[in-house]
Design a protein that fits this description.
With 187 residues, this protein is of the alpha/beta class. It has one domain (19-153): 3-Layer(aba) Sandwich (Rossmann fold), CATH 3.40.50.2020. 23% of the residues lie in helices and 29% in strands. The protein is built from 4 helices and 9 strands; from the N terminus they run βαβαβββαββββα. It has helices at residues 18-35, 51-58, 111-121, 180-185; strands at 11-16, 41-47, 65-73, 86-89, 99-107, 127-135, 148-152, 158-159, 175-178. The two termini are 27 Å apart. The protein binds 1-O-pyrophosphono-5-O-phosphono-alpha-D-ribofuranose.
C-alpha cells in the first residue's frame, strides 16, 4: 500500500510562517501601489517559483496593472545553480514602452535576475524594477538590483511558498528549511 506523501514531514523548521508572509506582501503591495499610482504597471512573474508570490502580491496592488510570465531555468533540479541561464518561454506581450516590475520568489546567486534584467533592458522598456520575496545575499555571485524586498534569508536550502526541490514542496504555505538528508540522499 502506498502511504500518502506529506511534504511537511521533510521540513526541518519553518523559517517564515504564513502570517509573516501575508503581512510582508501587504507592505510590498502598498509600496508598489504608491510608486505606480500614476503609471501603468506590468508585473512579470518568473516561472515557476514566483507564481505563488505573484498571486498574493497582485491582490495587494491597487492601481491598474497587467501580468505576464517568462520562464528561465538554471537549476535543472539540482541544489546548486549551473550558472547557465536558459530562456524557456518568453513574454506573451511586447514589453516595449512598459513599466516592468519583475516578480521573483528568491534571489540566490543572482544569475537568473542578472540574465533577465540584461535581456529586458535591451527591449525598449519605459522602466524596470525588481521585487523579490526572499534575498539570500550570502549566496550572491552576481550583483543585481532589488527595488522591493520581502525578507533576507540565510544560506540554507529553502522550500515552500513556490520554492521547490525537484518540483516538490511548492504548495507549502510557508517558507521552510529542507532536511539535509532529503537532498543529500539524492546525490
Ligand atoms: C529559482 C528561483 C529563481 C532562481 C534564483 O528558479 O525561482 O528564479 O532559482 O536563483 P539564482 O539567483 O541563483 O539564479 P529555478 O531555476 O529553480 O526554477 P523554478 O522557478 O521553476 O523553480
Amino acid at each position: 500500500m502506498k502511504l500518502s506523501f506529506n511534504p511537511s514531514d521533510d521540513i526541518e523548521r519553518i523559517l517564515i510562517d504564513e502570517d509573516s508572509i501575508r503581512a510582508k506582501i501587504k507592505e510590498l503591495g502598498a509600496a508598489i501601489s504608491r510608486d505606480y499610482a500614476d503609471r501603468d504597471l506590468t508585473l512579470v512573474s518568473i516561472l515557476k517559483g514566483s507564481v505563488v508570490f505573484l498571486a498574493d502580491l497582485l491582490r495587494n496592488i491597487s492601481p491598474q496593472c497587467q501580468i505576464d510570465f517568462i520562464s528561465v531555468s538554471s537549476y535543472k533540479g539540482e541544489p546548486e545553480s549551473s550558472g547557465v541561464v536558459r530562456l524557456i518561454m518568453d513574454l506573451r506581450e511586447s514589453p516595449v514602452g512598459k513599466n516592468i516590475l519583475i516578480v521573483e520568489d528568491i534571489v540566490d546567486t543572482g544569475y537568473t535576475l542578472d540574465y533577465l534584467c540584461r535581456n529586458l533592458l535591451t527591449r525598449g522598456l519605459e522602466s524596470l524594477a525588481v521585487c523579490v520575496l526572499l534575498d539570500k545575499t550570502a549566496a550572491r555571485k552576481k550583483e543585481v538590483r532589488v527595488d522591493y524586498k520581502g525578507f533576507d534569508v540565510p544560506n540554507e536550502f529553502l522550500v515552500g511558498f513556490g520554492l521547490d526541490y525537484k518540483e516538490r514542496y511548492r504548495n507549502l504555505p510557508f517558507v521552510g528549511v529542507l532536511k539535509p538528508e532529503i537532498y543529500k540522499k539524492a546525490k
